[in-house]
Amino acid sequence: MNIIIVGPAYPYRGGIADTNESFARSLKTDGHDVTIVTFRLQYPSFLFPGKTQYSEADPPQDLKIYRWINTVMPTNWFAVASKINKLKPNLVIIRYWIPFLAPCLGTITRNIKTRTLKVAMCDNIIPHEKRAGDNTLTKYFVNSFDGFITLSRTVKDELKKFTTKPISFFPHPINDNLGKKLSREKALKYLGLDPDFTYLLFFGMVRKYKGLDLMLQAISDPRLRHRKLRLIVAGEFYDDPLIYDKMIDDNNIKDKVIIRNEFIPVEDIPYYFSGADLLTQTYHTASQSGVTQIAYHFDLPVLVTNVGALSEFIPHMKVGYVAEKDPVNIAEYIVDFMNNNRKIMFRENVKVEKLKYTWKAFSEELIKLSEKL
Description:
By secondary structure, this protein is of the alpha/beta class.
């Protein structure tokens, strides 16, 4: 098939861009002709809370990537649809994760020729940080498509409120650009950390819904205060860091928290995930998270809160923990992890569990959906 993926890709950085590129490679391996159409302008700078939207890495040489889309220029949307039509695709897959993009991506989709099959790949339907008009924008986007594929059952259930068209679910696969697992000693040496401590990892951009506040409260629990334990917070703060600095000071845990307030490039990911003992995802709200699959790639056990779809991917007491959204309960599981040496058992189970999350299986599910449509 001639397939076009519309969404973030190089030179944009981050999990969705990495995922689109891994997806394109998987489809290419199966013999399809694949093009990625990405943004010339994704977010205006005043709407983007981070330091930069762009990668410093070299461009991928094995992918066709066209930077065509300006999300705030309606005339551009019609021009992009015209360019896509000239490529004569059999299938267009459009990535959706935030209502801000609905007018742009919905309009492009509406102007792609009817003989082309149009499928939305949905990370989120209900946004984590809700705003007035979200449902109206999402309806506009959803009504443009022939079918949908979601990365969690939770998002599939949310999508059913907006459409009766076919929906397939397949869990978020593990990306192909994450590098090799390293020895714990080598990873911690690179990070400048003492191997005598147990390290919890809180990874990715810091926003309110991701629940860093719950983790800071959990590690201030009296049962953990005198343990050789550190929390690594590795990711760029999209919230005001002073909010968390105050929590750290108020709870007297400055010696237990290591903050790396910066975007972590792909080449450094193996060091953080090979050096850590437990990934902690203490979200307040969630759909799914690609960070969970990064942990699986490195055989790292995971603690999640029982919100959204996070628990779908973490069999409790097998590869990690599903905790309540409660610092006391989170702390209980961290104590259990340390007291009962769960790490070895969890790691062995992760090695089996992660076999479900391949891009080949995901690509095959997408092709089945397209054949059904």
